[in-house]
């Protein structure tokens, strides 16, 4: 073996550093050729239409990051809703091992896990930054892992939409009475609050909202915010666009992993998979924050959408009903009760700081 081969073989990367530090031009030859590692092929199923802005592209981004960071040792192929399984079959598909990853929102699994909505968004609950604080530093993620464990799944935060919009309405909402008999696409706990207010909540996957609103099967619909609502053309079917999104103040999106598949990975790949999701959690929120205002401008200036704010009296009533809905949910299930206790206590404390820091500063910035 030539000397430089020898150095390369035994010292690897540190030899490269040492040689370049000495200013030598010559590069050591790398380690002896190894047997190429086997590529782990994973499928990711999603609740979103393929490549849908923010949500679908967020799922693509998790896959891309895993592929890149692993140097191709894992290859993830992404399926849009309906390609491999339906939008609301993602949980079962990953739990059964038909796919190894699933990109969705935890609130869609409320029928299986009563505590699930707490891990995406709760009406009048935490905003995006506070959700991350609760999940990563307030015990939320450990509770989420406990909730998914019986299904052989590992949950991960993998994106956030930020505060959503209140939705699209065909008529103005001036009092709680205007919600009576209103047929609205609004899933999860927000839907149950609407029901208590006398409305008729409907759960539909994103792709079915526009035709239902246009045909008159729905009177109103909430989806996400300007960036996504513009993409679906919802402004063509209803003209009043309401804020704030009391029903989803900062919705965490998830990427669940099949636990058995995850355990087969070496620890470096496990870390890559989980950290790709963490990166994506940040990137999605940044994308929504940057794109929402551009889209809002298009909606108002080009499509003449009428922006409205829910009257305070309506919000006060909805907030009361929301507490009832969440307390009833927590009373029915021991884990939901523990999760709500954790999130409620966290909200009480963190909102003091949010009010003192961000709310107070935003007030100052707007003076
Ligand atoms: Ca929504």
What secondary-structure arrangement, pairings included, does this model have?
Blueprint: H1 3-21, E1 40-46, H2 55-69, E2 74-79, H3 90-95, E3 101-104, H4 128-137, H5 140-148, E4 153-154, E5 157-160, E6 167-169, E7 183-185, H6 188-196, E8 200-202, H7 209-215, E9 220-221, H8 226-231, E10 240-243, E11 252-258, H9 259-263, H10 267-302, E12 306-309, H11 312-332, H12 334-365
Parallel strand pairs: 1-2, 1-3, 7-8, 7-9, 10-12
Antiparallel strand pairs: 3-11, 4-11, 5-11, 6-9, 6-10
Helix pairs in contact: 2-10, 4-5, 5-12, 6-11, 11-12
The protein binds calcium ion.
Pick out its properties.
single chain; 367 residues; alpha/beta; D-Maltodextrin-Binding Protein, domain 2; 6-stranded mixed beta sheet; 12 helices; 48% helix; globular; disordered N terminus; binds calcium ion
Please outline what is shown here.
By secondary structure, the chain is of the alpha/beta class. The protein is built from 12 helices and 12 strands.
**Major beta sheet summary:** 6 strands, mixed
Assign an overall shape: globular
Determine the strand fraction and express it as a percent band: 5-15%
Estimate the helix proportion, in percent.
40-55%
Roughly how many Å is the radius of gyration? 24 Å
Number of strands: 12
Bound molecules: calcium ion
- CATH fold-level name of the domain at 40-158 and 251-289: D-Maltodextrin-Binding Protein, domain 2
Mean pLDDT: 92
Low-confidence stretches: 1-27
- Mind telling me the CATH class of the domain at 40-158 and 251-289? Alpha Beta
Distance between termini?
A: 74 Å
Q: How many helix segments?
A: 12
| Topology pattern, helix = H, strand = E | HEHEHEHHEEEEHEHEHEEHHEHH
Q: What is the CATH superfamily of the domain at 40-158 and 251-289?
A: Bacterial extracellular solute-binding protein, family 7
In CATH terms, what is the architecture of the domain at 40-158 and 251-289? 3-Layer(aba) Sandwich
Q: Which secondary-structure class do the elements indicate? A: alpha/beta
